[in-house]
Structure to design on (862 residues):
């Protein structure tokens, strides 16, 4: 296999496993609600079937034998031979894990530990499939043999299951234009699914025009005929109820005999291009739908994100050239030729718009929805809650929210840690919850949404909330603060203590949450992405942690500010407003503050913060109000120099210890401007540690 | 015949000693002569505008852009603790890669020339000599008939300067 071939195989297999895992989660959730999801199970079966074919094609032995057995199990599930239950789901989830490991290990296919893992899952599956229950038969006379004759085993099983559940059976005879059959059929199926289950659909073999295809849809539903007709009936769709053996009441208006013909031969002369249809009439439409899906997937390319970075750098350099062009156009207009100057300006504007399009296009390529990571987290939550023996319901919203691919990759671990904390420390044990009159199952909400140029991700539990006394006690015990300090800390500062290294509020350190090394690491990792964590907690009600992250790291709009002779760039996304510093300032607890529309705003004079000594006789000063999450800080600067789209560059290892800057950017004319790391400055100015230091100094 | 033999013997000897010859780039700083191994120098540039980086180590002059890439600039004067002097006109920056991704430059007063010295003309500093103030100094070069040159380890000086 060529490297590229292998790469493609790995990517595709990875995608299938991800999709399969997503299905499993949905099946798991439905199972917990006591609902069966035959369509999801069927889909999972199809995914594994595809993966099986793929892996044997590429000679991936481990994966091939794993998927082979998985397919058996899923086939049993969809045919009702194996009943869906927690142990079955456990085996399926463990198969996902082993599948992931196999894909990361394909280079060394004969790794013995992995081989034994595969064997363990395969054995577990065998155990499940051999103890299959006997298929119970619905009395055969209750189903019209004309229908039974054309159904596959799976469809027959679904039909029986629905009849056992007391569903009515309907036939919807509908005519499609061959040009639009794909979209119209799936639309019809979607609306039919709202009221029941589509058992099968078959061409009738009778059509009124050469480019019309007539299909019979068999639908099982609890609804009455009138309700089904009003939802699905129409000009080209006629709904009839199929009389069942057990009901003899309703008027028998239909004969289903054409169905039996459908399988053997369909004579539609005008449909030559679709010869497959005449051979396998009941499958062809589904096949076309699948082929279309695959075609869509083929049109996507995978691109190394660093190639996009390079493009973005070029866009940055072009922007600088563009502003040079502007300066020259101005000069031409002023000195030589108004007309030529005007024309240059016009070209400059067009260039500007095109560059913007280019930039947005590149940014769009970097964006990915959070969904895939959320699915991984959901698997993690399921595993952790089972390990800890706690019942947890995870409610996810905003999975479609998009964020920079590089950020997503760094988010998984911190978020998993936060969820682990929520399950382990937040959610109470079942008896404790009962005592607090809470439902047995704890709820964790994972919400994401975009707010301006930030993405917010919330992890909220309905657990016991943070125990401040214990947190203080632990902080005092480890010597982070003393009791006099504890007394003067605000609630916000108190909650901030949990992000200090070495603080865990549970006495019994569990294997799952570790030893309180964690939240500090989480915080550092989030800060590295230009984000912050805010905590809200209510005793007995729950804890909510909110991550505020930039949408992208590649390029952003920045405000250029001047302090003395030096220019700094401040990300516009971190600024809520800019004001003249006209109202006076005062000192609170050794910290300079001003008033902003009645609220107190702590100030940070960048001149002294950065130790820029060269004082300038300064009449006016500006306050740039920086806001990250819930926290605000007024940055005092001498002047505002304008706005610019900037591409940020790392300061490199040689300056990695210098805090307060997230990088540097080119401002044009070979000048370099430093980009302020607002989150880090806020942190340094407002962190509890800083307050504590001040308390010590003043006290 | 004899003469031919002598010549070839000489040639062999110079072949042999070629391996022991160091190519050095010599430059001045506060009127003292220094040199670094030429192979360590990535590029020599006229100083572009340099942006001061607050809170960086005292020897760091700031950052600049060299054809789109950021470089940290270290002032040799400050690394060696020499007094400030006004030498703007001929100043140059010797750029070196301190890691695969990092570009760091050393600002010197004036670049002189490439000097070839035999290792026998260099007194390398001993272990005992290589502590605090003199780390980064590899030895003293004595070119025949020329002034004494302080031989520096460019990467070590830059790393030290960045603190």
């Amino acid at each position: 296999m060529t490297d590229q071939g292998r790469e493609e195989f790995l990517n595709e297999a990875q995608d299938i496993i991800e999709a399969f895992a997503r299905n499993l989660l949905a099946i798991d959730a439905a199972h917990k609600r006591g609902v069966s999801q035959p369509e999801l199970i069927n889909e999972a079966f199809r995914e594994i079937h595809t993966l099986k074919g793929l892996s044997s094609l590429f000679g991936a032995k481990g994966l091939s034998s794993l998927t082979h057995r998985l397919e058996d199990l899923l086939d049993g599930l969809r045919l009702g031979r194996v009943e869906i239950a927690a142990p079955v789901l456990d085996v399926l989830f463990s198969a996902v894990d082993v599948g992931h490991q196999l894909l990361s290990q394909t280079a060394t296919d004969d790794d013995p530990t992995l081989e034994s893992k595969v064997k363990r899952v395969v054995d577990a599956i065998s155990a499940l499939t051999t103890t299959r229950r006997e298929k119970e038969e619905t009395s055969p006379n209750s189903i019209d043999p004309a229908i039974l004759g054309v159904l596959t085993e799976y469809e027959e099983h679904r039909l029986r299951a629905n009849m056992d559940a007391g569903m009515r059976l309907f036939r919807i005879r509908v005519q499609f234009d061959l040009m639009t059959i794909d979209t119209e059929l799936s639309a019809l199926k979607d609306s039919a699914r709202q009221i029941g289950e589509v058992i099968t659909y078959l061409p009738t073999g009778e059509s009124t025009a050469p480019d019309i295809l007539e299909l019979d849809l068999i639908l099982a539903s609890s609804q009455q005929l009138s309700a089904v007709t009003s939802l699905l009936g129409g000009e080209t769709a006629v709904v009839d109820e199929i009389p069942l053996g057990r009901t003899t009441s309703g008027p028998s208006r239909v004969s289903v005999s054409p169905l039996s013909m459908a399988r053997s031969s369909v004579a539609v002369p005008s449909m030559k291009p679709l010869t497959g249809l005449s051979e396998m009439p009941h499958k062809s439409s589904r096949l076309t739908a699948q082929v279309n899906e695959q075609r869509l997937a083929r049109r996507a390319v995978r691109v190394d994100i660093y190639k996009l970075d390079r493009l973005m750098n070029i866009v940055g350099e072009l922007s600088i050239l563009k502003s040079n062009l502007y300066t020259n156009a101005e000069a031409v207009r002023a000195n030589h030729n108004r007309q030529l100057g005007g024309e240059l300006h016009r070209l400059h504007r067009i260039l500007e718009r095109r560059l913007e399009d280019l930039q947005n296009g590149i940014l769009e390529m970097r964006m990915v929805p959070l969904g895939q990571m959320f699915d991984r987290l959901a698997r993690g939550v399921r595993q952790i809650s089972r390990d800890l023996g706690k019942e947890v319901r995870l409610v996810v919203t905003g999975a479609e929210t998009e964020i920079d691919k590089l950020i997503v990759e760094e988010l998984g671990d911190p978020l998993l840690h936060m969820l682990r904390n929520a399950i382990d420390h937040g959610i109470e044990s079942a008896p404790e919850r009962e005592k607090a009159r809470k439902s047995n199952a704890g709820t964790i909400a994972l919400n994401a949404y975009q707010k301006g140029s930030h993405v917010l991700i919330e992890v909220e539990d309905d657990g016991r909330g943070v125990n401040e006394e214990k947190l203080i006690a632990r902080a005092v015990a480890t010597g982070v603060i003393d009791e006099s300090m504890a007394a003067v800390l605000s609630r916000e500062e108190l909650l901030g203590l949990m992000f200090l290294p070495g603080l865990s509020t549970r006495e019994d350190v569990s294997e799952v949450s570790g030893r309180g090394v964690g939240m500090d690491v989480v915080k550092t990792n989030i800060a590295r992405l230009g984000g912050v964590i805010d905590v809200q907690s209510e005793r007995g009600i729950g804890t909510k942690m909110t991550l505020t992250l930039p949408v992208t790291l590649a390029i952003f709009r920045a405000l250029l500010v001047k302090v003395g002779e030096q220019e700094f760039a401040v990300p516009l996304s971190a600024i809520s407003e800019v004001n003249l510093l006209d109202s006076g300032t005062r000192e609170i607890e050794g910290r300079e503050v001003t008033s902003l529309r009645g609220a107190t705003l702590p100030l940070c004079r960048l001149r002294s913060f950065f130790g820029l000594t060269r004082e300038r006789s300064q009449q006016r000063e500006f306050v740039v109000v920086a806001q990250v999450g819930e926290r605000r800080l007024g940055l005092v600067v001498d002047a505002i120099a304008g706005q610019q789209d900037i591409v940020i560059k790392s300061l490199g290892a040689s300056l990695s210890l210098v805090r307060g800057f997230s990088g540097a950017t080119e401002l044009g004319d070979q000048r370099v401007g430093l980009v302020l790391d607002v989150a880090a400055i806020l942190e340094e100015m407002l962190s509890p540690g800083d307050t504590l230091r001040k308390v010590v100094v003043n006290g | 015949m004899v003469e031919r033999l002598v010549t070839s013997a000489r040639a062999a000897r110079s072949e042999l000693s070629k391996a022991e010859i160091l190519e050095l780039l010599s430059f001045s700083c506060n009127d003292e002569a220094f040199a670094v191994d030429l192979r360590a120098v990535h590029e020599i540039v006229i100083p572009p505008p340099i942006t001061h980086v607050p809170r960086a180590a005292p020897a760091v002059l700031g950052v600049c852009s060299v054809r789109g890439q950021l470089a940290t600039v270290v002032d040799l004067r400050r690394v060696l603790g020499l007094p400030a002097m006004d030498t703007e006109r001929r100043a140059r920056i010797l750029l070196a890669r301190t890691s695969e991704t990092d570009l760091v430059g050393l600002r010197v007063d004036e670049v002189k020339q490439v000097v070839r010295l035999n290792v026998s003309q260099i007194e390398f500093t001993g272990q005992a000599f290589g502590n605090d103030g003199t780390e980064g100094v590899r030895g003293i070069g004595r070119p025949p008939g020329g002034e004494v040159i302080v031989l520096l380890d460019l990467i070590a000086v830059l790393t030290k300067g960045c603190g």
